[in-house]
Amino acid sequence: MNTVATVIAVLGVFWTQAFSYEIYSLPGTNGDYVQQTVTISNELHIADIHVHAGMCSSDTIFDYKHGYIATRLFSRRACFILKMERGYIPELEEIGRLAYEKQMMNKMFSQKNLWLQYEPSDSIFGEIKEWLTFGKPIEKLCKGVPVYKVRKVEGAIRAGGCAKAGILGILGISICGKINI
User: Fold this and answer.
1) Could you give the CA distance from residue 161 to residue 164 in angstroms, rounded to a whole number?
2) How far is the C-alpha of 88 from the C-alpha of 98, rounded, in Å?
3) CA–CA distance, 72 with 86 (Å, rounded to integer)
4) I need a labelling partner for 99 at 20 to 30 A (CA). Which of 29, 92, 93, 117 fits?
5) Per-residue tens of pLDDT for the chain, all 181 residues
6) Are 76 and 143 contacting, i.e. CB atoms less than 8 angstroms apart?
7) What is the C-alpha to C-alpha distance for residues 109 and 93, in angstroms, rounded to an integer?
8) Exposed, middle or buried: residue 37 (CB in 10 Å: 0-12, 13-18, 19+)?
9) Residue 173's beta-bridge partner residues?
């Protein structure tokens, strides 16, 4: 009987971890009025970030199951999609740990920054083929607005008009248009 109880207890722990949502409310950086919520679904392998900052509001989805990050910038009425690559994007568990630390300590000393670039004249409206590739969560986020595929660039881009998104204070994402002169 003890063996059955032990197996049920262990399965319960793993079941709870697999089907849980972790929600963090994070403070803004530099005393700005920013409300930021990070929701992590271990079941779906997704981190969903909502940044409420007036004209700079955005939603970002880290979809680890399909391997894409999508950011919808509300001020630009557009969606930006990046293929995840190992090494510069934190794992789902690390996002949860960093969000917890940021919520509890109010400061982070290990912020990462990611610089992305897109071609302003190269947008698509998602077709069925793209939505199958990107997955349902990204489809829900980006359907009905222009979608731009972005690429990672090394170092800061020297261009005006870059938009900031991501998880403020943990993983900053700067999205900049390519300027051809």
Assistant:
1) 10
2) 15
3) 22
4) 117
5) 556 444 444 444 444 444 456 766 665 555 566 778 888 898 899 999 888 877 778 899 999 999 999 999 888 889 999 898 877 788 888 888 777 777 776 655 556 777 788 877 777 776 667 788 889 999 999 988 889 888 888 766 665 667 777 776 667 777 888 766 5
6) no
7) 18
8) middle
9) 114, 165
Helix intervals (H) in the chain: 2-18, 92-105, 128-134, 136-142
Taking the C-alpha atoms of residue 55 and residue 76, their distance in angstroms, rounded to an integer, is 9
Residues in the chain: 181
- What's the token pair of residue 40? 């992590």
Q: At 138, is the secondary structure helix, strand, or coil?
A: helix
β-bridge pairing 35-41 and 171-177: unpaired
Integer CA distances (angstroms), 112 to 19, 35, 147, in order: 28, 20, 25
* Amino acid letter, residue 142: C
